[in-house]
Amino acid sequence: MLVMMQAHATEEEIRAVCRKIEELGYRAHPIPGETRTAIGITGNTGPVDASALEALPGVAECIAVSKPYKLVAREIKEQDTIVELGDGVRVGGPELAVIAGPCAIESREQAFAIAAAVRAAGARLFRGGAYKPRTSPYSFQGLAEKGLQILSAVRAEFGLKIVTEAVDKESLELVEQHADVIQIGARNMQNFSLLKRAGRSRKPVLLKRGLSATLDEFLMAAEYILAEGNYNVILCERGVRTFADHTRNTLDLAVIPAVKRLSHLPILVDPSHGTGRREKVLPLSRAAVAVGADGLLIEVHHQPDQALSDGYQSILPAQFEQLMDEVRQIAGVVRRTVSTPPALGQVAKTR
Amino acid sequence: MLVMMQAHATEEEIRAVCRKIEELGYRAHPIPGETRTAIGITGNTGPVDASALEALPGVAECIAVSKPYKLVAREIKEQDTIVELGDGVRVGGPELAVIAGPCAIESREQAFAIAAAVRAAGARLFRGGAYKPRTSPYSFQGLAEKGLQILSAVRAEFGLKIVTEAVDKESLELVEQHADVIQIGARNMQNFSLLKRAGRSRKPVLLKRGLSATLDEFLMAAEYILAEGNYNVILCERGVRTFADHTRNTLDLAVIPAVKRLSHLPILVDPSHGTGRREKVLPLSRAAVAVGADGLLIEVHHQPDQALSDGYQSILPAQFEQLMDEVRQIAGVVRRTVSTPPALGQVAKTR
Amino acid sequence: MLVMMQAHATEEEIRAVCRKIEELGYRAHPIPGETRTAIGITGNTGPVDASALEALPGVAECIAVSKPYKLVAREIKEQDTIVELGDGVRVGGPELAVIAGPCAIESREQAFAIAAAVRAAGARLFRGGAYKPRTSPYSFQGLAEKGLQILSAVRAEFGLKIVTEAVDKESLELVEQHADVIQIGARNMQNFSLLKRAGRSRKPVLLKRGLSATLDEFLMAAEYILAEGNYNVILCERGVRTFADHTRNTLDLAVIPAVKRLSHLPILVDPSHGTGRREKVLPLSRAAVAVGADGLLIEVHHQPDQALSDGYQSILPAQFEQLMDEVRQIAGVVRRTVSTPPALGQVAKTR
Amino acid sequence: MLVMMQAHATEEEIRAVCRKIEELGYRAHPIPGETRTAIGITGNTGPVDASALEALPGVAECIAVSKPYKLVAREIKEQDTIVELGDGVRVGGPELAVIAGPCAIESREQAFAIAAAVRAAGARLFRGGAYKPRTSPYSFQGLAEKGLQILSAVRAEFGLKIVTEAVDKESLELVEQHADVIQIGARNMQNFSLLKRAGRSRKPVLLKRGLSATLDEFLMAAEYILAEGNYNVILCERGVRTFADHTRNTLDLAVIPAVKRLSHLPILVDPSHGTGRREKVLPLSRAAVAVGADGLLIEVHHQPDQALSDGYQSILPAQFEQLMDEVRQIAGVVRRTVSTPPALGQVAKTR
Q: How confident is the model at residue B68 (pLDDT cuts 50, 70, 90)?
């Protein structure tokens, strides 16, 4: 259930309603909207008795939530969620978020070379795996904490926001110290223990859609994170598994307007994993922005043939520059913008 | 195998090579390119002996074709195929082809009302089914020949090119008399008898991808048509069947660059069937143009709630107008154009 | 709608109800059951007025049909349909129907060698394609009418019932002259013109499930045949298309009990196409019988490495013998039998 | 790489080879076969130099492993792995393993009632979730440790072996104390941290196939467990996600012979999750045994309409009895047996 407060409800009234909800044995989730606050209720196993709440000062109405998910639903929050990452970097607002970098962090040299290139092309967020979930136990599994330290150095040096994956509670604890956004990968989309732990983090979470996840399952996975109190969740479509063999996965761009309709959360597209083919990253990036995505997640490598993982789907810095250029033009058509990072000197000063 | 003629080869030399191929018991398919002609050979069950052909005047070289398809392959023809429909309407060139109209022709009034609307918004091709393949034998199956006559009247009145589906040889014979483009639907993509018959038609063919067709199967289906001598084939992506349930089908936009890489044939996108949801047609149309499609196939109905089929995926004329407007802007980014039909008076004069 | 006649209704009463239905502008389909006859009504676009029919002598009640399909539904006919092929060969009764033979008829010698072998192992039905729908226009397309003549010779010589595929109206007209059962292949499952033509044939029809057909679509395709008056339809599961790559298709054995629940039609399983791997035909045949299928469709070739199509999924005669042996034992557990063909001398006599 | 020891190689020789492998910086996995021991090598990033090993006493030959997986491959161990659970209960041998019980442990009363029923029908292994991965954060998530205590009581009372799921490292640590087999669910099939932890457990692991896992990914997930030193892995097919909507998932029975061909590990089938429909559990259980599965995982509930999860796919004790009866008969055909648990009195005595 959802308690809609009146537009002029005071902070104190909102707190009182939350207290009452907790007294009833549930959990209260106050979600501020543009004109008024909604309070989501979780923890109930059956319907909640509205009468005890509707009588409280400042309450406008109690409404039943028609979807299995509550906190991620548009019903609770009409406005788009904008995840603030600091220094003017936001995900979900009018400005597109472009996250670029290598599949895996391989060395300080590699990370810095790629960071410099993607920053020059206009990216404001840097990706790179320190913990790599690999199909084979014998494949490169990432540099672990050493990789995270390199990522921290990238932020210090280039002023880029850091997005990197956590694969279990131990890595999540380290990731949240080093990163600006904690990524949960497709294979862990229904690793509910990890989702709950991410929900107790203060860092925003980037949640990738599982390879065979329906839209409902995807939103319910996000709900696990919000239900623990972390409302800064960014969704990411990265292709689903089908019979089609001309790409590694089938990028399901129709899920973008579908998510926008049902949820207030921002959603990005990862055309690198979504196609698994270098030459398809550019056209699908254009398509993703045209369809209404809030940004992109792009694998870039300066020496893709020597990459320790996923080299065949990484694009070169020069291709990324072209991508940014074309994406900027498409963005204009859909009334979005792509900002330019501040000059490097300024970064240094603010640090 | 493929015989590449020299750039300065004469018509007579090309004819002589074709004659030799036929003498050897095969079929010759001369395909003119920008600088030189390639001659495809079909009808062979094993490898063709190149020596008998390489010695002929004007022959540059004989090359083995590495793909299971020959005539649809880029190897035989580097330049994009442009299908000419007359009056300056083309599919495959710099100008996007937008085919709009109702799912089914229901009456002269309905067809004219929608034709006027889509023409006003800028469409130059009109679609509408006279023969409807329906899952249930008890559903409306189309007006048949009467529907074709209405389509002919639409062309006469509005100067729109007509695209309509044939479902068997009998209907194809009528469709080729009334239409400018013969459509083969997704369910018939591997109805090889129908493909062969379409290959013997002089009218261009629009071939829709089957619901579970791989890229190779899709191109091989087109090859059936070309192998019979009809080189004017337009492909169309219309969504594939997956587990995803937020759309009727999953639109596979990555197939567009994949087709462009392997084949010289033009390819359109049908976001109406591809999503099956009215509100997703506009964003997916933008995405389709952004990814590089040669055009769109859009279901438009002025009274979708009363449509005899597929009303829930048809958009209103006003929505189509907005779609054309946004598509025109995206087209600019990918160096494509969307032309405006000539004034109606001019149409009348040319008829 | 469905008119249920009383148990003691006379032939004349049944005919009178049918006449009345036709007078109302619909089509009547009398379906005799064990104790009483049901009359299906098709051709109506809206609900039928029951009052005009309920008043007629012999009518027990009129009941609305809750499924989109009518004539294939259990609601209209509680007992399993048994398709009689003569000489004691039946599909759908307690005895399993095993149809065996090569993918394609290649020569009289090949067909006879395989026919002798499968007959010796206990098969009573022989399969072999004279018309082959092939992905590539350059692959062997079958011997056409010459293949049908060989099949007729196989029947005369070995007393086997013949099952062979028709791919269009022309081939269907020839197939119905030579075969005992007309096969409609998976790719043509929604070739509605072909289904309607098969519905006007007097020969039973074997309808294979399309590669991405839902259960409803499969049953609706069968409904097309019954709606034209041919009630002898045999369904066949042959695998659906999924992401799985360890078999050519994914055999969906759960569809067998699902069909049995909803429909009175018999259903076979084709593990040869369903797996596309020779070594999996035997275990999946056992599973198909165990799950409750009414029989099997098995590709057998005496020289699979030289087969003109699908050699890698054909089993050898000795493997087929073992298959029949194991299937016979499983059949016993599920209260089914596998009969033995009469001695060859007896066949000669009856011809 | 794989070091094949000679048939008469001594324990000391085997140990010496392992020591040498470890000295080279790799990990040695001695796998005893029927006639000789194979030693798998993991931890190498490139090819291993065979010469240093082939010279050692007792070594027959060094062979390169052709598959991405090593320890799970038939190449390293020709004989089927038999997982010993004590008291004569085995998974993978001639006797079928039937694991039965409720989806979730709800109470001591519920667990005992169902345990008594499934034991009476012949099951020797009991399943029941104490930790339930649920799509919604608001669904019943299991009784956790209290559930494990109830399971321990079931073992003490009924002498049934206990199989229950672990969802993260914390729960795994408790599960390995209470259970005989640790289950890893489909959603966690690529939770590599959990797989590695399970690989360090001394308890056998039941690994369920992910909803969209290819055969290679499934075997690689098992490889993660073996690579850590736990060779007692039992695989389980539980249906994959497809477009088909007549069952919750599509049970892929062809994966059973495919696994048997490539791997020495035992594989079970879970027709309860595989179909999600109570009435399909019995026929698909017969089919699973017929196709060659090493056993079944069946959800049984005495009051399915009141079950806290998955009630609609649980069968009643009486249906389970019939299932055991039919399975026993099919088992005979495929040369497998289904044993009967010892009388309850005897259980008590051995404890």
A: confident
Of all residues in chain C, the one with the smallest CA distance to B220 is C136
CA distances in angstroms from A330 to A234, A271, A288, listed in the order given? 22, 16, 10
Q: Which pLDDT tens digit goes with each residue over A280-334?
A: 999 999 999 999 999 999 999 999 888 887 778 999 999 999 999 999 999 999 9
Convert the pLDDT of each residue in D166-219 to its tens digit: 999 999 999 999 999 999 999 999 999 999 999 999 999 999 999 999 999 999
Instruction: Give the pLDDT of residue B346.
Output: 62
Decide if C250 and D250 are in contact by the 8 Å CB cutoff.
yes
Residue C320 has pLDDT above 60, yes or no: yes
Q: Examine the pLDDT at C32 and tell me if it is beyond 50.
A: yes
Q: Which fold has domain D2-63?
A: Alpha-Beta Plaits (3.30.70)
CA separation for the pair B75, B65 (Å, rounded) = 7
Q: Is A61 helix (H, G, I), strand (E, B) or coil?
A: strand
Q: Which of D269, D291, D294, D319 to substitute to test the interface with C, most C CBs within 10 Å?
A: D291
User: Cβ of D333 and C329 within 8 Å?
Assistant: yes
Give domain limits for chain B: 2-63, 83-350
CA distance A200 to chain B (A): 30
The DSSP letter of residue A322 is: H
Most trustworthy range by pLDDT among A302-311, C37-46, C333-342: C333-342
What CATH class has A83-350? alpha beta
Cα dihedral A327, A332, A335, A339, rounded to 10, equals 60
Residue A45 has pLDDT above 80, yes or no: no
Cα distances (angstroms) measured from residue C108 to each of B45, C152, C310: 21, 11, 19
Could you tell me the CA-to-CA distances from A287 to A296, B81, B99, B253, C93 in Å, in that order? Answer: 11, 23, 20, 8, 55
- Match 């395909």 to its residue by tokens: B31
Query: What is the distance, to the nearest Å, from the Cα of residue B105 to the centroid of all Cα atoms in its chain?
Result: 20
